Amino acid sequence: MREINPQETTRASAFKMWMSSPMPMVTLTKTFNITHIYKTSKKIGLKLNMLLCWAICKAASQVEEFYTLPKDGKLFRFDKLAVNVIVPNVRGGINSCDIPYSENLEQFCKDYATRTSSVAKSCQSIFEEEYMVVGTSAMIATELDCIVNQYTDKFLNPMVMWGKYRESWFKKTLPISFQFHHTQMDGAHAAKFLDILQREIDEVNV
Fold this sequence. Notes:
Blueprint: E1 2-4, H1 12-18, E2 25-33, H2 35-44, H3 48-60, E3 68-71, E4 74-77, E5 81-88, E6 94-100, H4 105-122, E7 132-138, E8 159-162, E9 166-168, E10 171-181, H5 187-203
Parallel strand pairs: 5-7, 7-8
Antiparallel strand pairs: 1-4, 2-10, 3-4, 5-6, 8-10, 9-10
Helix pairs in contact: 3-5
């Protein structure tokens, strides 16, 4: 992670316009066809949410704007991505867990399983400060149309959120909400990410 001069980036005007805005977060929602990734998770015995997190990181890695993040009135550049998941712990509470992104799905799954298991048992969160972290929140107890997260200057990272998937004839669909800071990217970048995410969900394979 390193600080960069906003004026030397493509986000110069966005930084000037949105960095001081009291509500700079934007939320887009898209319904995804998750039939393929659902079948893959059942076939190979891996958690659907874990595969979704990998697809999210892989899609994010293809959008340049994900590697920058506004924070404390400054703009920072990252070289590596990670995904954050919320983990229920043995005490009945929750903790945060950052999992570094690896293009190798097998490696990512190993890291995901090891880290989330450790966090659940220790009740200690794991944070990766040197990674650009994409937050996630899976509220799978019920079907949801859209999720708008709280806005706080303590967490300006992009956030991907979803509820329980929906079933129809031979098809599984899932509305996914994507929240981002307008300084980091514009709506067109966010829409591009969502389109890439659908492609990655369609193509995930082990």
